[in-house]
Amino acid sequence: MTTTISELGPRLSVTDPAFSITSDEVKQLREQSWYATTEYGIAVLRYEEVSRLLKHPKLKQGSAAWPAHNGVVEGPFAAWFDSWVLNKEGEEHHRLRRLMNPAFSHKLIGGLVPRFQALAAELIDAFAAKGECDFTAEFAEPYAARVIAIMLGLPEEEWEIIARESATLGLAMGVTLKQDLPEIEKALERLYEYADALIADRLQNPGDDFMSVLVRAQRDDDSLSEQELRDAVVLLIFGGYDTTRNQLGLAMQTFMQHPDQWDLLASDPSLGGKAVEEVMRVNPTVRWVTREAKETFEFQGLTIEAGTTIHLYSESAGTDPRVFGEPSFDITAERRPHYGFGGGAHHCLGHFVARSDMSEALPLLARRLRDPRPLPGDRWLPDSGNTGPITLPISFTPAP
Amino acid sequence: MKITVDMARCEDHGQCAIAAPVAFRMNDDGRLEHDGEVSDAYAAEIEEAADVCPVQAILIGD
Description:
heterodimer, A: alpha+beta, CATH 1.10.630.10, five-stranded mixed β-sheet, three-stranded mixed β-sheet, 17 helices, B: alpha+beta, Alpha-Beta Plaits, transport (chain B), Ferredoxin (chain B), iron (chain B)
């Protein structure tokens, strides 16, 4: 006996502006059922089902048609979006992934750790004496943008351009894509100029850095074309900036609710890596991972029709009491893996970078910003899709 | 060369099967299957598979 999606409840209105993916409503539904129906398709709420569907052979990544769904079918943005390795499937995807992977290896990233540490210290020095800051504007944004500048070998003082143009590109992920298109395409053009200059430079002056490795990426006599390279560089700026900025802000939010864990992190910086994992389990910026059914198939008694959009709720999975017990936040605990970096063939390409830069930043922040507390005036992105603080004013006691 | 995968760590993301299909495959259930021994001629791609594994579950050599 199987059921089809249209026959059953529970239902979530995820396009309602008041919808919050971390609300009690979602947690109550999680107790009733492993999934809910939504305006888009289905939302998967429990850990085991998210884990299996994330890597399910009958599903593909689900956002390739996003521009077309919003009436954008041609032009530079549509072409760039279509070029994303995230929006490719099968051998076309695997080829790009094979060519891009070596530049993102943890071995190459490891050499950048001292620069991440120096950057975090410099940023904290600039505001610490005040005893308060807007954590987004004064730390998360410059840190995320300058990490990208360091990786690409761009002048770090140009971080505001990276931040601004990436934020403009981010408008493309919203429902006002079509009306914002002229502005989005201007930002895209600006970032392509950076990419072109970088590629030309590394072809002339090859080194051992990330950008050089990417430019000379080669496998079985195949390599990235110039267009593929410039598309990839712009994607990495865009994909790396927003997510890191948001995830750092969410980390601060979570730690302000758990001062004992902040103290622990300050006293033992080697917990930085585990702190990142624990934050991404309970408060991931990527609130849902999108998949689409390639063909009709059965899953746990449910018939999922070809073309159905499936949102895998990462925070709901990460706090599922069936797997993680009572709500808790403990940076020393051994946990099952979280899905804040997605998973399967499309597992986040930049996760070693993100893990490395955040695991350096958080312990240093914990040592220098004692007893952080929220101040009024915080503003947040909607609590769905990709979320995080737009502004996050905090106060703290400075420490050396 | 010898390949060992820590199956307790493996999460079946399949990045190794993309990097080195000569030794790693995902079956119809989406689970990893791999060879225990491959020719040294494939050393470069096997090393890439080990490098790219998100949970670093692949060990090369004895």
